[in-house]
Amino acid sequence: HLDSYVLTESSLFVFPDRCILITCGTTTLLNSLSPILDAISEVRGEVKFATFMRKNFSYPWEQKGPHTSMETEYDLLKKAFPSGKPYVLGPVDSDHYFFFVYDNAPQGSVETDTQMSMTMYGLTKDLTKHLFSEEFHPTGEETKRIRDESRLSAILDGWTVQDLQFAPCGYSVNAIRDGEYQTMHITPEDHCSFSSYET
Predict the structure, then answer these.
(1) At 190, which helix (H) or strand (E)?
(2) Is 10 a catalytic residue?
């Protein structure tokens, strides 16, 4: 069983044994950590594995706490998961990813789940021209038209889709199928075109 929610520039996927929260922009993702841990505690659950990952910010001056620096994010994560470890992939003074990994899974346990994330910049007008609108559109004929004209339907065929077209621009989609998920968030403006994809 899998529930999926598009939360403007964020996505939430809830499985029986895990949740995945993905966001971009200035959403304060780590502010959800304490309520999530409280909910797990209320049902006497236990966290066996947790990760936090983000690319360095394109507009760091627009971020809100606790996302004003890697250090404040690390401090919050380390408080919640004392044995967790931080990693940086890439040069700190250029494009890089900050990872935090907490792994309390039993030794020798095997995880068959694989997660892939990617970010894309400098999107072509051939794609982005479909992502501007004077009105907000929830999942329906207008968002189906966007999927078809942008050729996103090619990767979403056979999936249950929830997508949103934002005004004046922007597009988000969650897709689920048999316990698997895909999500994409697209910002189409020329000066900052960006797409994130995860499955």
Answers:
(1) none
(2) yes
Q: Is 153 annotated as catalytic?
A: no
* Interior angle at CA 168, CA 145 and CA 24, nearest 5: 90
Q: Render pLDDT for 117-164 as a digit per residue (tens, 0 to 9).
A: 888 889 999 889 999 999 999 999 999 999 999 899 999 999 999 999
Looking at the chain, which runs of residues are DSSP E strands? 3-7, 10-14, 19-23, 49-55, 85-89, 97-103, 117-121, 160-165, 171-177, 180-187, 194-198
**Is 135 designated active site?**
no
Task: Kindly report the pTM of this predicted structure.
Answer: 0.84
Cα separation, 162 vs 180, whole angstroms: 14
Residue type, 146: I
Strands, sheet with 117-121, edge to edge from the N-terminal-most edge strand? 117-121, 194-198, 180-187, 171-177, 160-165
Q: Which of 4, 150, 172, 193 is catalytic?
A: 172
* pLDDT tops 70 at residue 59: no
Element (H, E) at 148: helix 141-149
Task: Single out the residue of 59, 38, 56 nearest to residue 47, CA to CA.
Answer: 38
Of these residues, 73, 185, 196, 198, which one is catalytic? 185
Q: pLDDT of 11-52, one tens digit each?
A: 889 998 888 888 776 677 788 889 999 999 999 999 999 998
Q: Which of 4, 11, 24, 196 is catalytic?
A: 24
Given the residues 4, 9, 73, 150, select the one marked as catalytic: 9
193 CA to centre of own chain: 17
